[in-house]
Amino acid sequence: MIKFVRRIRLKLLDEGNLKRYLFYAIGEIALVVIGILIALQINNWNGQRVQHKLEKSTLMEISLALASDTVRIINTIQQLQNSLNNITRLIDHIEAKKPYVNELSDLFKYSYTFHAATFGKNNIAAFDLLKERGTDIISNPELRRKIVEHYTTSYVENEEWFTNLKNVHSLEANRIYSNFKITGDINEGISMYPYDYNELLENEKLMYPFHHYKSLALNGIEKLKVYLGKTQKVLQLIEAELKK
Known about the structure:
This protein has 244 residues and is mainly alpha-helical.
């Protein structure tokens, strides 16, 4: 092909037809430029295809992580609700000054160990992968903002709150130790009894930790419901983007 083009160019020069030679040279340059532009466009299309594929796989990974988080949050809300029910029954029984029954041992135990509910950690591996690949791979700016906001603000606030909840609960445990006998292991099962049930009925201060646990459970449920709503909203946005 190169020899053919060169032969034509030499022929035009030999004929002394400068006008035709210049016209041919310009055409030849134009063809080269067009070829380069086509190659660049093809390369650009390939790059966009690879970018889109990477964006889709990343969004699918984040979607799976958020779906898993949603299930975990719902389960945790249910666990906290069960704990709240136990604490409420316990407080109502004591405040009504009812006699001791064996069921109280379980209510004391479940109320005290409600912090052992599987709060767990959100799955942030997919978001870490997004940061590694670059958040700009998400072409939808609003979706990109929502995802980043979810993991850098909502997620952090939720984790900090539950860390504080566990810390406060641990501090309240000191009040428990001085007034209740606890035997066994949390993982295998514990038993919990008041040293003096009659004193518990008369001294409201001894029940303070359980009132505090009730407040924590209530607050935790509300916090998680808000966080659940935010998680589901981001998940819905991602699923809508993947359907495009």
